[in-house]
User: Fold this.
Amino acid sequence: MLRPHLESALELARHQGVRIHPAATHPGPEAGQRPEACGPPARWCVASLLSWVEPLRPHTRASRLSLDPDRTEGVTPHLPGRPKTDVLDAVWLCKVAERQMLRPSFVPPRPIRQLRDLTRYRVDLIEARTAEKSRVEKLPEDACIKLSVVATDIFGVSGREMMAALIAGERDPAVLAEMARTAMRRKIPALREAFTGHFDEHHRFLLEQMLSRIDGLDADIARVEEKIETLIAPFAQAAERLDEIPGVGPISAAIILAEVGTDMSRFPTAGHLCSWAKVSPGIKSSAGKTKGNSSTGHGNRYLARVLGETAVVIGRSDTFLGERYRRIARRRGKCRAIVAVSRSILVIVWHLLNDPDARYTDLGSDYYGRHVNTESKKRNHIRQLESLGYRVIIEPAA
Assistant:
């Protein structure tokens, strides 16, 4: 006969079970059900392949199981002297998650994830098109044809017509140069010299294939952008608010929404969003000395790309963010200026998405000049002149 406190202890004992599902076999609805023998645990979690997260999600709603992947940075299941298998790693991660030692990852709702798939695919298509254009630019140089040296953009109207003539069999430099249009006609003498080479059948075949691939990628990008416009329609108001930020266009707004979502409750403050995106400067200090280069780390590369491109565009504008970019670039360099302005943009994005009534208002490029401390600036100039051996007397202007 067991004592009452031992019986209650056995009832509250933890139960651990491991189910193994082959990677090539669908786990089925039973994988999303919590075994009855497990009792009501404080937290029950499943460690499985990420590819099964979506198929399991509909079967786990009734059991209140969250399949959002957890962030496992800093959790190393493989310790010295400890066996290492996939099952043991899954058990270890479940135990760590049960003790709430893992932070849940950011998993946006399904419409945002679908939009994200399209925006990321569009970026991949653009990268493939850029690589193909680089091959096209390099190919004529193998035949001693330096078209890219004379033409600013060989894929403009004049450049494409000239390359089409090369594919059609035209080899006369004078005829090819006369195909130039508008401003390029001033470069006709240089074009005649640039087309003097030995373009043969081998180059013609490769150029035809490369241009055909570029045209196909252009068509694919256009179809993807049409689909993005369809999926962004439910978030049109949020996209319009983001479009008010200088340098942010419709495509950039769609990419930002696809990467961060529209629900800012996942990020309590703008600083949390910046930290998640890895645009907050890091610090590493020991014994009163700062070490490292204050790197922000590696975050979402798609978000970092669109923020960096927007920051460069803003740097040429006559706006508050543009002046901020130029001020930081003069003192710390362009790379740090890009990261700083990217963080400023992300802070603005958080406020616009967190408050539906918020609107972006530019402070003006003269903001820093209007808020300068004249007394401090005067003291600094006097101190600098006195250090050079001058005696300074300040008299107010009439």
Notes: Strands lie at 70-71, 103-104, 284-286, 289-291.
